[in-house]
Design goal:
4 copies of one chain form a homotetramer.
Chain A (H helix, E strand, L loop, with lengths): L4 E6 L3 H12 L4 E7 L3 H10 L6 E3 L2 H8 L14 E4 L3 H13 L3 E5 L6 H13 L5 E4 L6 H11 L6 E11 L5 H9 L2 H4 L2 H11 L5 E9 L14 E8 L3 E11 L6 E6 L3 E4 L8 E5 L2 E4 L5 H22 L7 H20 L3 E2 L11
Parallel strand pairs in A: 1-2, 1-4, 2-3, 4-5, 5-6, 7-10
Antiparallel strand pairs in A: 7-11, 8-9, 8-15, 9-10, 11-12, 13-14
Helix pairs in contact in A: 4-5, 5-11, 9-11
Chain lengths: ~375, ~375, ~375, ~375
C-alpha cells in the first residue's frame, strides 16, 4: 500500500477544481491520482492542470471507481485508490457518496449531503455500516484557524457559558442572475448559506442541544425572481434551543463590498467575535474620501486556508485511522435546521419542538 | 419674556441630574430655573449642584408649576417658566407630561412616555390639542452625530434602498441585581432597551411602514429572577414590515466589556454600520496579551453629546418655534412594537398584521 | 467680585472665534464680557455672534484693558475683568500677554508664546514676577481625554519605562497656498506643527529630561514655494535625550484624508498608541470598493472637546487659585526644541548638547 | 532532466527547517532531494522530518554538492541537483552561495548575503559571471500579498508621488538574552531588522534613488549588554534621498504584544499603510477589561505565506528561466544603507552623500 493517500476527485466545477488542486499541490501526504467529470470544459481544464501531473481523467464515475480500486502495485500505476472527494452538483452528492462508500473508499463530500433530509439520512446510515471508512461532510469553517481559536477560547472558559449565537453568511452582490438559477437546486438560502452558521451553532452549543422553536423571514430586495423557487436574497432566522440558548442567523446575496461571513458568541462573562472586521490584505488606503479597506470578494477568498487544512486533516485521518473532528450526523442535524428555517420562511409560521427536539404538530 | 428658555426639570435621578446639568451648563440659550424632586438624597444633591446657580428646588410638582408659571418679570425672579423636562420614574411620565402641557409648557419627556400603550396614546392626544407647544419624547440616538451621519448617507443614496436593519442595545453586566428590581416597572427588555433600536428602524424605514409580523425569543442567562416579571436578560426580536423590509433586534444585560449599542442598515447597494467597533478613548494598549481597547461603560458614556444636542435643539425649537425633528407619534409607534415584541417573548407566539399594519386575530 | 470669571478674548480669527464661543457657551463658570479685534470682518462676526449676549467689542487692545479692568460693580456693567485669552496673530502673542499680565490679568495665550525664543523667554520671566496670576500657554492635547488616559496608564506602569516616543501632526492637504503664506510667520513646520508633539514628549518623558542631540530633514512635495521661507511640507525630526530616551516626530501638510495627529509611547513592557486609527463619526460605509471610514478634517475636528476642557480648567484655576496643570516653562522648552529642529532642517546638520542639555559648539 | 526543480537546503536552523518544509510540502514544482547540516540536533530533526520523504542528509556542504550534482537519471536517484537554498549562519552565507553558484546551481540565499559589504559585493560579482543561474537574496516582504497590493496601488497612482516612507521591524520581547548573543554576528539592529524596511524603501522609491544623508540613534532599554557589540534594542534611523524623498525606520527588540512590522508610504495624494493593525486570528475577545486582539508572535507568524510564495516563485524562475522579481544588487544596496545606519548609530554622526550617492568625507 502507498504511504500516500491515493485520492480521486469527482466533479471539477468551482469547488471541484479547488479540491483537486489542494490535493495535488498542498496536501503532502496525498496523491491525486484520478478525476471524474463528464463536462467538456472541465475535461479541458483537467487536461491542462491535472493530467501533466499524472492524474487520470474519467468521464464516468463508476468506471473511475472500477479502474482505480484495483490492487495497488506502485505509485505510478492504476489502482489502490483509497479516497474520493465528491464535489459534483448537490443533486448527485448522496448517490455518489454512497457508491464510493460501498466501494470501500473514504469520502470527503462537499456540503450539503443532499437538500433532501431523507436522502441525506441514507448517506449517514450507509456510512454507519462502514465504520472503518472515514466519511466527512466538509464544513470548512470548522477547519478555519480563527474559528478554532474561538472554539479554544470558549472551551477555556474565556466567555463563561455561551448563551447567544449570531452568525451570518453574506455573498457579494452578483447582478448576473446566477443566484436565481442556482436557487432551483440549492435548497434555499438557509440550506445553502446559513447551513455553515447552523453547523457552527451546533459546534459551539453542542451537537445534542435540542431545538425549541424555529422561525424565519426574508425579503427579495435585488432578485425578485427568487420567489419562483420559494427563496429570498436576504433571510433572518431564529433558532431557540432548550436550555436557555438562542442562535440567530442572517444571510444575504447582496453585500456590496464582498464576502462577509461573521459570527459572535455571547457568553455570561464575555463575547467572541470572529471576522467582525473582514480583512482583504493588510493594506489601508488613506485617500481623499477617508480610509478604505478592501475585503475578500468571495467565500474562497476568506476560507482558502481552511479548505487546505481540511484536505490535510482528512488525509491524516484516513492514513493514520484517526477520528475525524466532525461527525457526519452533525451535517444531517444542520441540514434539518436549515430545511425547517426554509419551511418557516415559506409558510410564515413559527415551528415548535418538544424538550427532546421532536417537532410538535401545528397548533 | 426672557430671551433664554426658562426650564425646570422634574426628577433628579440618574437621567434627571444629567438633564439638569445639561440645561444649566451646556445649553447657552436656556436657563434652568427650577427643579422638582421629593427624594431627600436628590434634594441634597440639588442643594449642592443647582441651588448655588439660582435654581429653585421644589418637592411638589404641582407647586413648582404654580409658582414658576407666574408672569415673567426679570431673569432673577420667580416666573416665566416655559418648558419642563420630565425625568421622573417611568410610571409618572405620562401624568406629569400632561399636567405640564395643560399648564402651557413645552415638554421634553424622557422615554418611554409610558409602558402602557393607552396611557402613552393619551399623552399624544393631549399634545395634539396644544399644537403651539413642543412636546418631545427624547430618543437620544436621533441626536447623535454618528446616527445623523448614517441618516444623511442613506438619504443621499449611499446604500441604495434599505432593506434589512439590525440594531442592538447591550448594557454592561451589573451583578448587583439592579436589573431584576428595575424589570418590575421597565416594561421589559424590548420596551426598555430595544425601544431605541425600534425608533431607529422607523427612522430609517419611514414612520409609516406597516408591520407584517412580530416575533421574539429570549433567555435568562445571568438573572433568572427576571422571569418573575416575564422578562429576560437577552432578547432577540424580529419585525417584518410590508414592502420587503425586516428589522431585527438584540438586547442584553450581560455585556462584559461595557455598553455596546450598534446598528447596521443594509441596502441594495451598500451597508452602513454605526458603532460596530465601540470607542472609549482613542488609546490602544499594546500589552503582553495583545492589543486592548476599552469601550464606554454605560449609555451615557456613549451618548452624552447626543443628550446635550437634544437639550439645545429642544431649546431652539421652543424659542424660535421651529418644528421638532421627531414626531411624538413616533414614540408611540415604537412603544407599540416594543410591547408586541415583549408579548411575543412571553407567549412564544408570532403575531401577524394586515397590510395596513392592523393586528390580525390569532389563527 | 463676580462669582464667574470675567474673560475677554483678543483676536477673533479662526482660533479666537472658537475661544470666544467656548467661554460664552460651554464654560459655565466664566462670563465672556469683551472681545478685541481690529479686523472689520471679525468685528462683523462679533456683532452677530457675541454682542447679542452682552459681549462688548473693542478695536483697541489697550483700550479694552483700560475700560474692562475698572472695579467690578455688577455682572451687567463694564469692569472687573479677570482674564484675557490671547488669540491674535503669533507675532503679537508675547507683547499682548505681557501687557495683560502687567494689567493684573490671568492669561491664556494660544501657542506659541512667540516664534522667537528670547521674546518667549521674556513672557515667562514676566509671568514669574506675578505668581498670583495664572498664565497658561495652551497645548490643547494635554487637555484631551485620550492623551490623559494615556498619561494615566503610563503613570500606572502599564507600559513599564517609556523609552521611545513617536508623534505626528498631519494637516489635510490645502491646495490653496495658505500654508505658503502662513510659513512666513509660523516659525516653520517644527515650531508650528510638531510643537504639540514636542510638548507631549516632554510631558511623557518629564520636562527636565536633558536633550542629547537634535536632527531634522524635510521635503517640499506639494508646496515648493515653502522653500522661500526655509520651510517644508513634510518634516522628520529626531530628538535624542540623555537617559536612554528618543522622541521622533513627523509633520505633514499634505494628508489626503484629513487631520491625523497620533502618538505612540513605547515602554519596556508595553506600548500605547493614541489615535492610531482616527475616527470621524462612528459610521463605516461598506460600499463596492470596500469599507470606508471618514476622519476629522481639521485640528478642531479632532480636539474641540480638549479646547473646551482647557477653557473650563483655566477658569477653575483662576477662580479657585488652583495650580495649572502645565507649566509655562514647558512651553518655552518645547519652543526651543522646535526651533533647533527647524535650524537643523535648514542647515542639514545634527546639533549636540551636553549632559545638562547645554548646546555644544559645532565640531 | 527532472520536470521538478531538484533542490537542496543548507542549514537546518530556525529558517532552514522552514525552507526545507516549504520546498518539501508546499512547492509543487520542486523536489527537496538533499539537506546539509553539521549540527547533531538538526540532523536528528532531519532524520525524522525529511529522510522519510526521500531527502538525503549530508554533514558536509561540499560533499553534498559533489554527490548531488551528478547527472540526473531518475527522480529517485542521486544527482541532477539544480538549486541550493542557503540558510546557514550569516557568517557563511557568502562563501556557500559562491560555491553553489560556481557548481552551476541556482541559489536562494537567506538575507543578508553578509554583514560585510565587500564580501557581499563579491557574491554579487560572482552571480553576474553566471547570468543563466538565478541568485536570489530573499527579502520575504517583497513576496507578501499585502506589500504587493501596496506596490500595485502605488504604481496605479493611488497616492500620487511617494515622498515619505516609514517602516518598522519590531520583535517580541525575548527576556532570555538571545538577542545579546545574536548581536555578535547579526551586524546590528539596522542590518538585521531594518534591512527589510530599507529594501522596501528602495522598492517603493526605486533602487536607483541616490542617498543624500543618513543618521541614526538608539537606546538600550531592556538589554544593556547589547552595548558590548555596539548595538541597541531600539533604533531610529533616517535616510534622506536626493529628489525630495525621506525614509525613516524604527526597530525594536522589546515589543510586548508580539511581532509588529509595519510600513506607511505617504504620497502627494494619499497614503498607504501596510499592517498598521496587526492581525493574529480574526477573533476579538470582548472581556471585562475591554476588547482584546492577539497579534502574531514572531516574524514567521506574520510572513509564512510570503516565504512559501518565495519558494514557489524561485522554483518557477529556475524551471522556466523567468527573471526574478528582485535584483541581487538591491540586496547589496540595502546592506550598504543598513551598515551606514549602524555606523551612524555608533559614531553619533550624520553621514552625507553627494548627488550621485557617493559618500562625502567628514567635514
Amino acid at each position: 500500500m502507498s504511504r500516500f493517500l491515493r485520492v480521486a476527485v469527482a466533479g471539477l466545477g468551482r469547488m471541484g477544481k479547488r479540491h483537486a488542486l489542494h490535493f495535488l499541490q498542498s496536501t503532502p501526504r496525498a496523491h491525486l491520482v484520478a478525476a471524474f467529470t463528464p463536462d467538456p470544459a472541465e475535461i479541458a481544464w483537467a487536461k491542462e492542470h491535472l493530467e501533466p501531473f499524472g492524474v487520470r481523467i474519467y468521464t464516468d464515475y463508476t468506471a473511475l471507481i472500477a479502474a482505480e480500486t484495483k490492487p495497488f502495485t506502485d505509485e505510478d500505476s492504476v489502482g489502490g485508490l483509497q479516497a474520493m472527494v465528491v464535489a459534483t452538483a448537490t443533486t448527485v452528492h448522496a448517490e455518489e457518496t454512497i457508491e464510493a462508500i460501498e466501494a470501500g473508499l473514504h469520502v470527503l463530500c462537499e456540503k450539503p449531503l443532499s437538500t433532501n433530509i431523507e436522502i441525506a439520512a441514507k448517506v449517514v446510515e450507509t456510512a454507519q455500516k462502514y465504520p472503518k471508512q472515514k466519511v466527512l461532510c466538509g464544513f470548512s469553517r470548522r477547519f478555519d484557524t480563527s474559528y478554532r481559536d474561538a472554539k479554544a477560547k470558549v472551551e477555556s472558559g474565556a466567555i463563561g457559558n455561551p448563551a447567544i449565537f449570531r452568525s451570518q453568511t453574506c455573498d457579494k452582490l452578483d447582478p448576473s442572475g446566477f443566484f436565481v438559477a442556482y436557487a432551483e437546486f440549492s435548497g434555499g438560502i438557509f440550506v445553502d448559506c446559513n447551513i455553515h452558521d447552523i453547523d457552527l451553532a451546533l459546534w459551539f452549543f453542542g451537537d445534542e442541544t435540542p431545538i425549541k422553536s424555529i422561525s424565519a423571514v426574508g425579503v427579495t430586495a435585488v432578485q425578485p425572481d427568487l420567489a419562483k423557487h420559494g427563496d429570498v436574497d436576504n433571510g433572518v432566522g431564529v433558532v431557540e434551543f432548550w436550555g436557555n440558548k438562542i442562535a440567530y442567523f442572517y444571510s444575504s446575496r447582496m453585500m456590496a463590498s464582498g464576502q462577509h461571513d461573521m459570527t459572535e458568541i455571547i457568553g455570561t462573562e464575555g463575547k467572541i467575535t470572529v471576522n467582525q472586521n473582514p480583512i482583504g490584505t493588510l493594506v489601508d488606503l488613506w485617500e481623499a474620501t477617508g480610509i478604505r479597506k478592501e475585503i475578500p470578494q468571495d467565500y474562497y477568498g476568506r476560507f482558502r486556508e481552511a479548505f487546505i487544512t481540511e484536505a490535510n486533516e482528512f488525509t491524516e485521518a484516513c492514513l493514520d485511522d484517526k477520528p475525524l473532528k466532525s461527525r457526519l450526523q452533525g451535517a444531517l442535524s444542520a441540514l434539518v435546521i436549515g430545511s425547517v428555517l426554509q419551511e418557516s420562511l415559506r409558510s410564515g409560521k413559527k415551528i415548535y419542538f418538544d424538550e427532546k427536539g421532536q417537532r410538535l404538530p401545528e397548533a
